[in-house]
Model the fold of this input.
Amino acid sequence: MSKIIDRSADIGEFVPEKDDDILVCRCEEITKGEIRKAVHMGLYTMTEVKRFLRPTMGLCQGQICGENVRRIIAKELKEPIEALKETTARPPVRPIEMEVFGNEVEKL
Amino acid sequence: MRRYDVCIIGAGPAGLSAAIEAQKLGMKSAVFDENHRPGGQLFKQIHKFFGSKEHMAKIRGFEIGKELLEEAKNVGVDVHLDAVVMGIYEPHRITVREDDSITSYSADSIIVSTGASEKTIPFEGWTLPGVIGAGAAQTMMNLYGVRPGKKILMMGSGNVGLVVGFQLLQAGCEVAALIDAAPRIGGYGVHAAKLARCGIPFYLSHTVVKAEGNGKVEKVTIAEIDKNWEFIPGTEKTFDVDTVCLAVGLTPMSQLLRMAGCKTKYAGGTVPVCDKFGETSIKGLFASGDVSGIEEASSAMIGGKISAVGAAFRCGFINEKEREQKYDEYSLSLFKLRKGLFSKENKGRTDITKTDEGIDLSMTLFKKGYMTEEELKKFVRNSEIKGPHPVIECTQNIPCNPCEDSCSFGCIHVGNEISAVPKFDENKKCRNCKMCVASCPGQAIFIVDNDIGDGYASVSFPYEFCPLPEIGEKGFALGRDGKDLCVAEIIDVTTNKAFDSTAVVTMKVPKEMSMTARFYRKEVPVNE
Done:
C-alpha cells in the first residue's frame, strides 16, 4: 500500500504555523512543529521520525497519536496518508514489566 | 505451550460470536481479552440496537452482551480475561500475559477481533483534563455510574456522538452543543432527533478552536470552517463547559495483524486485506469485527460467525459444502444490515436527496437534527385519521424493523427490505397498545389522537429519563426543535416489562399542536 517516498522531491522550506506548539504525542511530549521540522530536515518516513524524536514510543505505543503523526508527516510531504508506511508492529503490543517477561510458563 | 483448535483475540461482539460458532462446530476454542470484563463495548451500550429480530434488534447492547457471554459459557468456550495478547508468531502461535507470567498458546487457526480505538484531534488545549473520548464518557457513566462532567460539548455527529450525547443527558449532564466539521450530521436522523427535541443545538461545519482553563477545561471556543478547513473569522462561539467529548471516529487496532505480516490496506486506518470469510493473506489467520473495518456491533457479530465458519473449514471440521451453506445463511443476514443511507457505499455522500422509495429526504434533519412539518408531510398523512394511530417519523433508509414485529395488529409495514421506510397501514385499526412507540430503537414513533374532545389532542411519546412525569402534572410541550410550544398536561404514563425500561408518556395538548408537540419538559417552579 505504501509507496516509496521520493527523497529528491522538493517539499519546500519549513514554514512556521500558528498551531506548531500543540502537543501531538502526549507520552513523549512532542509538538506538531517538532515533527514538521524533522520532515524538513530530511526524515521522510514514520520510522525515521520515530527514531529521531520518539513519537509513538511512549506508554500508548502510538495508539492515540500514531495516526495523527502519520497525517502530519504525509501532509508535509504533500502525500496522502496511505502513501506513508506505518511504524513496524512488534511484540509486546502492550507495555509489560521485564520481570513478567522472565516468568514464561511452559505447560503441556 | 497450550493448544486449542482456534484462539480468538478479543471478547467483544465479534470475538464472542466467533468463539460460540467455532465451539458449536466442534472446535476447542479459547477467547482472550485484556480487560477484566468481557463484552468489549457491548456492556456500555444502554440503548436499543437497530436491525431485525435475527440481529437481536430492540434489545439493549448490554443485554446482548450478557446473552453472548452466557451462551459462550454454555457451549464450553474457554474465556480468558485479564489476558493480554502480547504478540503473534508464525505459525499461529500467540504469547499471552496472564497474571505475572507469560504463556504461549498455539492453534490451527487464529481469529483476531481486537476492535478499534478512538481517534483524537489535537487542538489548542486538548491536553487539559476534561477533554475525553466519547467511549471514556460511556465507560464512566454506564459502567461505573460517574458523570464525566457537568456541562459538555460533544465533538462529532456520527452515531457514537449522537448516542453518547443522548446518554449524557440521561445521566443528568448538560449538553451545550454537538459540533461536527462535516456539513451534514453523520449519524442516523432518528438519533439526532432525540437530541434536537431536548433542545440541543447542532453546529455543522464547525470545529474546536481552543479549550482553555486553569488546570482543567473551563471554556471552549468553536468556529465555522470553510472548504479548506480554515477557520472563518468572526464565527467564533464560546461555551462555558467543563468537558469536551471527542467522537471523531475509530482506528482499527490492527497491530497484531501487521505483526503477523498479513497484507493490509488503508481504510480510515490500517485494515487487513481479507477474503469473504475474513481470512487474511496468511492461511488460518482471520480478522473480524471493527479491526477489519469499522462497522456496527450487529455486523461484527455476524462477521465473527463467518470467520469461525472459515476457520472450521481451514482446520477440517466442516467440508466445503457445509462452509458455503453456512456462509450463505450468514451473509444474507449481513447483507440486510449493510444497506440503506448509511451503508459503506453511501457513507459520506452528500448527493443523495431521496429515499429508496423516492421521497425527498429532510435536509433540515441533516443540518439541525429535526424535520420541519412540511418535510414530514411527505412521509406521513395525519389530519384526516380518526382515533389514536402511530405517526412514524423514521424517514431515512436504515436497516431496522422492530416496529413491524411489535404491532400484533399488522398496522406497520416495512417488508422484506428491512432498510425500507416504515409505513402505517390506514386500513388497519390501531389499538393504542403503544408497543411500537416503546420498541422503536430510534424513538421515532408517536401515537397521536387528533381529537380527544374539548379542543384537545393527545400525543404519546417514548421517554427514557428519570424521574418519570406524573399523571396530572403540567409542563411545556416541546417541538421537534426542543422549543416550548404550549402548556401540556400528562394524562398517562405507561411502563411494562415488554417496553424494556422505555416509558410511554401521553400528554394532552391543544388540537392544533398534535403534529408539532413531540416532547415534554416539566415546568420548573420559579424560585423566590
Remarks:
- Chain B has a mean pLDDT of 94.
